[in-house]
Design a protein that fits this description.
The protein is an alpha+beta fold. The chain has two domains: 6-82, Glutaredoxin (3-Layer(aba) Sandwich), CATH 3.40.30.10; 94-216, Glutathione S-transferase Yfyf (Class Pi), Chain A, domain 2, CATH 1.20.1050.10. The chain is built from eight helices and four strands; from the N terminus they run βαβαββαααααα. It has a four-stranded mixed beta sheet. The two termini are 30 Å apart.
Length: 227
């Protein structure tokens, strides 16, 4: 058997990879990580489209299986099944959520809409422009103007779905927090952080206290890293 039962394929810079890494650490599951950017030969070796992350499951119920599990929402469901505690789910009524599926609604909004709005629309072009050093700050802001408009709309929506205080749905973290945090953490490293409202600012402070967040910070934009 492998020294650890799981191998996580993906750079720490990847937001979806960080979500999975946070979940593994929060639930106390040991894993190795192979740092590689998307669309690399290693990424394509494990994912048919070169996306991140992939979780290689070396053993299951004491048997060697070496299964490749792709797509973050599939991976977190596997993590939940093998390690239901500590829970990253909510109960009906927590944080104002009438039904527990409201957590998965926020997960999907972060993954399907938050990623293109935050990362593709603002973070990646801002970082690219900063690294190239060819444009003035004024020009960069002009280029990001339409993206920032969509960013504000997304952040307003997110805050409207969150509990008034604490984590996204109140007293304990959930998968909604873990899918949302890497996006907002990237944003915090940039000038565009100034559009983030009070609720998300306070929520970030709450998230920063989690060991799973602290342990997955190296290699991210927050510390000046690149893929």
């Amino acid at each position: 058997m492998e020294s650890t039962p799981y191998t996580l394929i993906g750079t720490p810079f990847s937001t979806f990879t960080r979500t999975v890494a946070m979940g593994l650490r929060y639930k106390g599951l040991k894993y190795n990580q192979v740092s590689t950017p998307p669309s690399s030969p290693v990424a394509f070796e494990h994912h048919p489209f070169g996306f991140l992350p992939t979780l290689i499951i070396h053993e299951d119920q004491g048997k060697r299986v070496d299964v490749k599990l792709r797509e973050s929402q599939a991976i977190v469901r596997f993590i939940d099944r093998i390690a239901p505690s500590p829970s990253l789910h909510i109960a009906p009524g927590e944080g104002g959520a009438v039904i527990e599926e409201k957590m998965w609604e926020l997960v999907s909004l972060a993954a399907c809409f938050g990623y293109p709005i935050v990362e593709v629309g603002v973070v990646k072009p801002r970082v690219k422009a900063m690294d190239e050093g060819k444009l003035s700050e004024e020009k960069i802001r002009q280029q990001l103007e339409s993206g920032v408009v969509k960013l504000k709309e997304f952040l307003t929506l997110v805050e409207s779905l969150m509990a008034p205080d604490g984590f996204a749905f109140g007293e304990h973290p959930s998968w909604a927090d873990f899918f949302l945090f890497p996006l907002i953490a990237d944003l915090r490293a940039l000038h565009e952080w100034n559009v983030v409202g009070r609720r998300l600012n306070e929520w970030m402070g709450k998230m920063d206290e989690l060991p799973a967040v602290k342990e997955t910070t190296p290699g991210t934009l927050a510390v000046g890293a690149r893929p």
